[in-house]
Design goal:
The complex is a heterodimer of chains A (about 400) and B (about 260).
Chain A: E1 12-13, E2 16-17, H1 26-40, H2 43-57, E3 63-65, H3 67-70, E4 77-82, H4 92-105, E5 110-115, H5 119-131, E6 134-140, H6 141-146, H7 148-156, E7 160-164, H8 171-185, E8 189-191, H9 202-225, E9 231-236, H10 240-246, E10 256-264, H11 275-278, E11 280-284, E12 287-291, H12 316-323, E13 327-333, H13 334-348, H14 354-370, E14 375-380, H15 388-395
Helix pairs in contact in A: 2-4, 4-5, 4-9, 5-7, 9-10, 13-14
Chain B: H1 4-14, E1 19-25, H2 31-44, E2 48-52, H3 63-74, H4 79-90, E3 95-98, H5 101-107, H6 109-118, E4 123-125, H7 135-144, E5 147-149, E6 151-152, H8 158-167, E7 172-175, H9 190-199, E8 206-209, H10 215-222, E9 227-230, H11 232-240, H12 244-260
Helix pairs in contact in B: 2-4, 2-12, 6-7, 10-12, 11-12
The chains are: A alpha/beta (about 400), B alpha/beta (about 260).
């Protein structure tokens, strides 16, 4: 699926991407890249996945116009792509079902996954249950405490959840541990990576499975307003929901693509997860991209109120889109995100994921900048059920 | 001009034995104790030293080295301490740095090798640098005459193996098994067949690492490999010792016993 912005060197986006992994994984990555390429060109695979999305995920997801919310966003038209209505409650299922089908095609019976907030872990456990695969989810010990409800969900679905006690005990350490498992068990196991980071083919493959978001949303926007949006907005942690909705718009040069990163307590404070805004080029988890790092190249711990954005790396394609100026990236603080979260709840009756609230905060800013004639398309990437406890604590609601 | 590491393998070959290569992360248990421990291990018979650049996200390492790296990083170990350790040891035996790629990229590829060379180091082991991403690395290491040591895994295909060893120098690092670093009860049977496969593609010395910890295992590996790499076993002795002097004595004893096991009939 070569696009005009991809480098002729497979798996690279300009200077970013590639493979920085132990030699032991190269064979498995080659096998996966081939399986993905074959499946991409196989109508049977496409039909099987489309049918699963129709009868299981609940696709196409709808477009909702947020008219009351829009009053707080400069009067611009606000269109929400409702990935929160997918089965399991977020966009993550798009990628997971695709990779689970590939796992079966490769003849593997066991999947491993990392998870931060638990959304990808839940989606992976769900797909494993559906397809009869063994599933082990690595989750930082800190995150198992922050997201205990999702730990229970994964266990109910039959997955084994392994709390990771190394390092900062969050998402990045869960990825380290999953990679160690994969190096050891690569013969029988597929690593079902949950975002557009990691070594080739993950950034390309995961993006391809999420492009359906942008393909649907582009057609739905044209149908509803008769033209393309002025801007497409999405939150960016690793960047999977953002690249999914951005990618089908890349050739539409008049459509601004805006990624909202987790600014935590503010980028200047150092306590944030805004990797492009506040990081620098480097290598983490098998790919070259922007990284939060110190002068010795050690990864710096990220901070965000949103566990799903709390990651010190970002997908390499985003790094490239940023450098060539095709996409813009801005940081949204914890407080700005929570204000937008509250506003979405009270004006539209939609409780968004706190990750998604970063995109909504961005919409408030951009709407005011562009004014009432503007049309903004926002990826409502996930629902906030999992965040009720965090939000209740933030707003002082007794539980 | 050959590096000290290359000269070592010429010598051990003439002595009909394998070389003993020891690994410790720089700054572990502390900057000074690391250098003291390495010197004791060299007195015990270690032929060459791999100095680890402790890294925040060591995906190739098992729990023992992870914990040692964390201990070292908490004390602020960085490039300065790594190169200091290289300088302190290079007068005694050949040294190489073992590091994940990002610290090199952050330091600057050319600058890293220039600094390695000026401190007496012979080369660098790069466990997560694939041959496809090596363009700048190949150029700079040629210019500074440093050894490029790549890791080959049991799963590496013959075709790929040829591509990698073609760019390697110093020695080829054969990973004995599919997995991360750490001690194992037995050396995997895949090690010998991997060494045999590597030898069909290169004249370079081949050293075996991952899971070698006892003199008996070292003896077994020494019968078919040119070098035996031991890391986690030394680290564990330092972690388990109640006092500094006990740790020093134990790593020296292990080095002595390993070295005695490396002869061939």
């Amino acid at each position: 699926m070569a696009t005009p912005i991809e480098s002729e060197i497979i798996g690279h986006f300009g200077p970013y991407g590639g493979r920085f992994v132990p030699e032991a994984l190269i064979g498995a990555l080659d096998e996966l890249a081939l399986a993905h390429e074959v499946a991409s060109n196989d109508p049977l695979f496409q039909v099987e996945l489309a049918e699963l999305h129709r009868t299981y995920t609940g696709r196409p997801s709808i477009l909702t116009e947020a008219k009351r919310f829009a009053e707080h966003a400069g009067g611009a038209r606000i269109l929400l792509k409702r990935e929160d209505l997918n089965h399991t409650g977020s966009h993550k299922i798009n990628n997971v079902l695709g990779q689970a089908l590939l796992t079966k095609r490769m003849g593997k019976k066991r999947i491993i996954a990392e998870t931060g907030a638990g959304q990808h872990g839940v989606a992976s456990a769900t797909a494993a249950a559906l397809m009869g695969l063994e599933c082990v989810v690595y989750m930082g010990e800190e995150d198992t405490k922050r997201q205990s409800l999702n730990v229970a969900r994964m266990k109910l679905l039959g997955a084994q959840v392994v709390p990771v006690t190394q390092g900062s005990r969050t998402l990045k350490d869960a990825i380290n541990e999953a990679m160690r498992d994969w190096v050891t068990n690569v013969e029988t196991t597929h690593y079902l990576l949950g975002t557009v980071a990691g070594p080739h083919p993950f950034p390309t493959m995961v993006r391809d499975f999420h492009r359906i978001i942008g393909i649907e949303a582009r057609a739905q926007t044209l149908e509803l307003v008769g033209r393309l949006p002025d801007a497409v907005l999405a939150c960016v942690g690793g960047g999977s929901n953002a690249i999914g909705i951005f990618h089908p718009f890349i050739d539409d040069k008049d459509v601004r693509l805006i990624g909202l990163e987790a600014g935590g307590c503010g980028v200047a404070s150092g306590l944030h997860a805004a990797t492009i805004t506040g990081g620098s080029p480097g290598v983490l988890h098998g790919t070259r991209s922007y990284v939060l790092q110190d002068e010795n190249g050690q990864t710096v711990e990220s901070h965000s109120i949103s566990a799903g954005l709390d990651y010190p790396g970002v997908g390499p394609e985003h790094a490239y889109l940023h450098d060539i100026g095709r996409a813009e990236y801005r940081a949204i603080t914890d407080d700005q995100a929570m204000q937008a979260f509250e506003l979405m709840c009270k004006t539209e009756g939609i409780i968004p994921a706190i990750e998604t609230a970063h995109a909504l905060a961005g919409a408030i800013h951009i709407g005011k900048e562009l004014g009432p004639d503007a049309v903004l398309l926002i990826n409502l990437s996930g629902r906030g059920d999992k965040d009720v406890q965090t939000a209740a604590e933030y707003f002082g609601i007794p539980l | 001009m050959s590096t000290a590491l290359e000269e070592l393998f010429i010598r051990t070959k003439s002595e009909n034995r394998a070389a003993l290569i020891a690994y410790l992360p720089a700054g572990f248990p502390s900057q000074r104790q690391c250098i003291d421990a390495l010197k004791a291990m060299i007195e015990g018979g270690v032929d060459a030293v791999e100095i680890g650049f402790p890294y925040s996200d060591p995906v190739m390492d098992g729990p023992v080295i992870q914990e040692a790296a964390e201990t070292s990083l908490r004390q602020g170990t960085g490039a300065k301490e790594v190169f200091e350790t290289v300088a302190a040891i290079s007068d005694l035996v050949p040294t190489v740095i073992m590091t994940y790629w990002n610290p090199i990229e952050r330091f600057g590829v050319d600058n890293f090798l220039k600094t390695l060379k000026s401190n007496g180091g012979s080369g660098v082991i790069t466990p997560d640098l694939t041959i496809e991403e090596s363009t700048s690395w190949l150029e700079s290491s040629a210019e500074h005459n440093t050894n490029r040591i790549y890791v080959i895994a049991p799963s590496t295909s013959d075709e790929r193996l040829r591509k990698v060893v073609d760019k390697a120098s110093g020695f080829v690092y054969a990973a004995s098994l599919m997995g991360v670093t750490g001690t194992r009860t037995a050396v995997s049977s895949s090690a010998q067949s991997l060494v045999t496969r590597i030898r069909t593609s290169t004249e370079l010395p081949v050293a075996v690492g991952l899971g070698v910890s006892t003199p008996a295992q070292a003896h077994e590996v020494a019968q078919y490999a040119d070098g035996v790499i031991v890391g986690s076993a030394f680290i564990r002795l330092l972690q388990e010792s109640a006092t500094e002097s006990e740790g020093i004595a134990k790593v020296k004893e292990l080095a002595t016993n390993l070295r005695e096991a490396l002869g061939r009939p």
